[in-house]
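Hi R.,

Here's the chain you asked about this morning:
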Amino acid sequence: MEKSVGGRLIAASGSCSDILYGGGFNAADEFVYFEADGKRHIVVSVLEFARALDEAAEGVTVIERGEILRSLPKDAPCRDFFVALSRYCGVDRWTVPAHFPLAYADVMRANGVAVTAESGDFFPERAVKSPAEIEKIRFAEQVTEDAMRMVRDMIRSASVNSHGMLVRKNGDLLTSEFVRREVEAELKRRSFTADRTIIAGGVQASAPHCGGEGPLPAGKPIVCDIFPRSDENGYWGDMTRTFCKGRAEPAALKAFESVRRASECALRMLRAGVTGASVHRCAAVSMESDGFRTCKNADGLPCGFFHGLGHGVGLDIHEQPRLAPSNAEPLPENAVVSVEPGLYDPAWGGIRLEDLVRVTSGGYENFCTMEKELEVE
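And the predicted structure, written out as tokens:
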């Protein structure tokens, strides 16, 4: 009986974080990454071959797609590419990520090639960032912070009309859509892509992922969450601040101070070896002790702190490790995580403050330098 030979396989474009991490090559068209006999390879079209030779990660062999197909006998019963690839490298069973296309897997299985989806992360080692990755994320966060300062300055320079709405210098209303458009255009000028940027004011801020629409109000919290991806290397930045034009209502001001204290509490606790669940709990208990209970209001809408404290950031905007009640695993050194406590209530809006930090053996390194201030004049 012949010995079964296994390998690992990804089929996706460079927008997929796993294939970008494994092969180090960023392409708009789909290509293939595979591991066999302890070696890493990517298979690309002839259009991408020369560029892939220059840009693929060190130690990755680049193969032109036509080579795989030409390796088959002319009378081969099946010329499907993935079956051809399996025969080319002598692999009859593949482990693939959960997002591997089902249509490809069906054809492979029909031709005697086993395909099994990875039950967890395809590259669990991604949770620990290399020095080069840390520098890419640090730069992404610097660009993100510059964009956040731009948002703050737009709110600060606005005037307030008789209806309590913010007005630009040209007399037009300052809207969520305008701020989002300006921020995303500026980020694109710096070779970053952002979409779904959150600029949510008033009651809209009580829904954490509401993007925001319409005129921005004075005297109410405006949650601003910016998370752009580098066009050059695929790494993300992530940052949230909450601003209020003029004096904030007492309930919102109290919530802001509570969220700021929760952030400080979580950061003091953060270090390699503590669990994500314990850091989350530290922030949650801090806000509960200030009187902010997580519950539902009379309309059934959630209030308080009802999301995880944070998540890993790298080639995905949400990745491991998590600062959440479900993560009982010790945090590794050189993980990069967001720390973003928040409080929400439809009665007054929402507050969220988010920093991006590197976990160290003795604490953390905060990539954010921007102060946390609510009221801007």
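The chain has a mean pLDDT of 95.

Let me know if you need anything else.
M.
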